[in-house]
Design brief:
It contains twelve helices and nine strands. The protein has 288 residues and is an alpha/beta fold. The protein has two domains: 4-163, 3-Layer(aba) Sandwich (Rossmann fold), CATH 3.40.50; 169-284, N-(1-d-carboxylethyl)-l-norvaline Dehydrogenase, domain 2 (Orthogonal Bundle). It has a six-stranded parallel sheet with strand order 3-2-1-4-5-6, with helices on both faces. It has a three-stranded mixed sheet with strand order 7-8-9. Helix 8 crosses helix 11 and helix 11 packs antiparallel against helix 12. The protein is globular, with a radius of gyration of 20 Å. 46% of the residues are buried.
Length: 288
């Protein structure tokens, strides 16, 4: 039987873990803020005292954490996963982190007898709750096929991208395209208001044609209602765009949209908007 450990119960991680429980997987959970485990315990999860203990109780361990440093600490730090794994353990990191760090983590876990897949996700809180995430998986194909039933509980579109680290690279491409679409939605709605157009009518018209996007259709109505609660925060969007910029600097080449987006979300951070949803980019121009 697949015994799953899940570490990181934030906006995304908690509903993903809940879906695994509802699908019947035995689940051991850990989160630094212990209160976040309570609702999962009520569904049948068991709590652990450390990532090490999660690994000791599981043969598959999933991490869903904020950034590269957090993943490194949970995987390789004191009382980390690496100190509790047994040969054949599968570690699946579903965070969005550095591709090069991912490759390094996989090598270090391999020395300890574990296999690793990187499987970042797209779809926000709504996708995590409904089990419809897009999941981009890097690692050995046979390992991907073995763990596919786990991914199918959490996601709708599961794509094998190649070697370990390719999941993260694919996710950064996704973040570039998604954030560019978000900027287009924000600027379009700002232009409509500046021109004296009815914003809701404009949104309905533009969303019905070739200019529509997930960002416009899903976040456009929230912007017009003044709803800037996070499904995916500005802080995390900025973190991902910094990862994108770092990766591009390694690759070389001219990617102007990436630089512009990193700058704009950096400005949002400086303005204190970091806890808003990424649609809060609209508030970088407060007179809109």
């Amino acid at each position: 039987m697949t015994k799953i450990g899940f570490i990181g119960l934030g906006i995304m991680g908690k509903p993903m873990a809940a879906n695994l429980l509802r699908a019947g997987f035995p689940l051991t959970v850990f989160n630094r803020t212990r209160e976040k485990c309570a609702s999962l315990v009520s569904l049948g999860a068991v709590t652990a005292e450390s990532p090490q203990q999660v690994a000791q109780k599981s043969n598959t361990v999933i991490t869903m954490l904020a950034d590269t440093a957090a993943v490194e600490e949970v995987l390789l730090g004191e009382n980390g996963i690496v100190s509790g794994i047994r040969p054949g353990t599968v570690v699946i990191d579903m965070s969005t982190i550095s591709p090069s760090a991912t490759v390094d983590f996989a090598r270090r876990l391999e020395v300890a007898g574990a296999d690793m897949l990187d499987a970042p996700v797209s779809g926000g809180e709504k996708g995590a709750t409904e089990g419809t995430l897009g999941i981009m998986v890097g690692g050995r194909r046979e390992l991907f096929e073995k763990t596919l039933p786990i991914f199918q509980v959490m996601g709708k579109t599961i794509t094998y991208t190649g070697a370990v680290g390719n999941g993260q690279k694919t996710k950064l491409v996704n973040q570039l395209v998604g954030a560019t679409n978000l900027l287009a939605a924000v600027e379009g709605l700002r232009l409509a208001r500046t021109a004296g157009l009815d914003p809701e009518t404009t949104l309905r018209a533009v969303s019905s044609g070739a200019a529509s996007s997930w960002m416009l259709a899903n976040l456009g109505p929230r912007i017009l209602k003044g709803d800037f609660a996070p499904g995916f925060s500005i802080r995390l969007q900025f973190k991902d765009l910094k990862l994108l910029e770092d990766w591009i600097s390694e690759l070389g080449g001219d990617f102007p949209a990436a630089s512009l987006l990193h700058s704009l979300f950096g400005k949002a951070m400086q303005m204190g908007l970091e806890t808003q949803g990424n649609q809060g980019l609209y508030n970088v121009w407060p007179s809109s």
